[in-house]
Amino acid sequence: QERLVASGGGSVQAGGSLRLSCVLSTSTSSSYCMAWFRQAPGKEREGVASIDFDGSSKYDDSVKGRFTISLDNVKSTMYLQMRGLKPEDTAMYYCAAHSHWSCGLGENDYDYWGQGTQVTVSS
């Protein structure tokens, strides 16, 4: 059974940085696509960035140039380095994973979800 544990959220001022981590625990040898999603109060959950097992990544336009997604296959850990944070980045951030062939930002593609970590950016 796959399990995802996210951490690293917190409160920062605008312009600050945070790094989120997500550890994937699995008993299979499958290759996974992993991603970060976020959901702000009153809004739908949206994809932020995804990364495939080979390191290829995709980003939502709102975070391009500010966020960097990375994957440590040895540690089975995904990271999201967030710089230049803005108040509109405030949300609960979730990590997710699946083992299908497509690795994008479609929420419905993902089978496994972590518990979420809160990011709050003040102006």
List keywords for this structure.
123 residues, 4-stranded antiparallel beta sheet, mainly beta
Order of helices and strands: EEEEEEEEEEE
Percent of residues in helices comes to under 10%
Distance between the termini: 41 Å
Number of DSSP helical runs: 0
Unreliable runs: none
**CA-based shape:** globular
What profile does the largest beta sheet have? 7 strands, mixed
Work out the radius of gyration: 13 Å
Instruction: Count all strands and give the number.
Output: 11
Overall residue-averaged pLDDT value: 95
- Return the structural class: mainly beta
- Percent range for β-strand residues: over 45%
Summary, kept brief:
This protein has 123 residues and is mostly beta strands.
Explained architecture:
This protein is mainly beta. Strands 2, 4, 5, 6, 9, 10 and 11 form a 7-stranded mixed sheet that branches. A 4-stranded antiparallel sheet has the order 1-3-8-7, with no helix packed on it. Strand 5 and strand 6 form a beta hairpin.
Break the fold down into its secondary structure elements and pairings.
Blueprint: E1 3-7, E2 10-13, E3 18-25, E4 33-39, E5 46-51, E6 57-59, E7 67-72, E8 77-82, E9 91-98, E10 112-113, E11 117-122
Parallel strand pairs: 2-11
Antiparallel strand pairs: 1-3, 3-8, 4-5, 4-9, 5-6, 7-8, 9-10, 9-11
